[in-house]
Amino acid sequence: MDFLNEFDFHLPEEQIAKFPLENRDESRLLVVDRAQSKFWEAPLFRDITTLVRPGDIFVYNETKVSYRRVFLQVESGRIHESIFLEPQDNQNQTWLCILKNRAKLKLGDRLSPVGFPNYQFVYQGPKEELSFLGSELTISDSDFEIFGNIPIPPYLKRNVTEEDKLRYQTIFANRSGSVAAPTAGLHFTEELKNTFRTLGAEFLPVELQIGYGTFRPLTTEQWQTKTLHSEKYLVSESTATKLNDARKEGRRIIAVGTTTLRVLETVFDSQLQKYKVGSSQTDIFLSPGDKIDSVQGLITNFHLPKSSLLLLVSAFATTQLVLDSYRYALKNGFRFYSYGDSMFLF
Asked: Is this prediction's pTM over 0.90?
């Protein structure tokens, strides 16, 4: 995939944000004006209020990160780190998982969460790079909150802290089911949200359950087929109706995050110029050359090199403008990734 080399860059380790800032809305903000092909520092995220217009609609992902990172132990004491991705049956007894060191397991081996022997899982075999684990019990998010941990990104290269339990959730988090946070929402505080409303802006929810694809590099097959990992989404009738009304009235619709943008592009009918109500799955892959009609603005973080998220941002703006802004961010010490700094593109 030589094409992706254009989207590669060296990120110094010190510019990876390993921990959140003390205050959510004090991340730095880079503003990108597509019409003028220019960008500038705001400088703090809370200063985005100077760019909010009366009537703006900010659409956010209300998903909540589930405590799906589980350290499992076999009878001999060996530990296998896992992330439970999604149930494979209606009883939530068989789960598709990321399971480290699975080569050391045999079919039928039993594993229990460390410190919680009453919960038992049976290794049921592989599915490509993933694995199946089964339980005689119905396993819900309330169970994961007992024996699991919040799955912070692997590139942080550290253990979970108590602070992560709060800070790796957005203030919008409402519906459990994701294994990663919709990180653009991490910059918002309740106070800032109220300021937006005072300025005449409105907030609307959608849901995308963020899955394993967040941790995966792009594959040649994904590039060739223009599809990504499939993820569940939900757009309510209330949200769709308000979005369609806003569209008719010429109000700006701004996606808080790339996951929100993927949902809106999935449900937006460009011929009818309408958003559809829906609960389904999306594997939409947006890259330079694709026309994005569903939004007029995007709030996002700084993403990994050669990632689908960087390609999506480049589709929304232009490749040159986005890469120039990234070069500026790299040169001027911006913090990257989940706990890092922010961009507002419009």
From this structure: yes
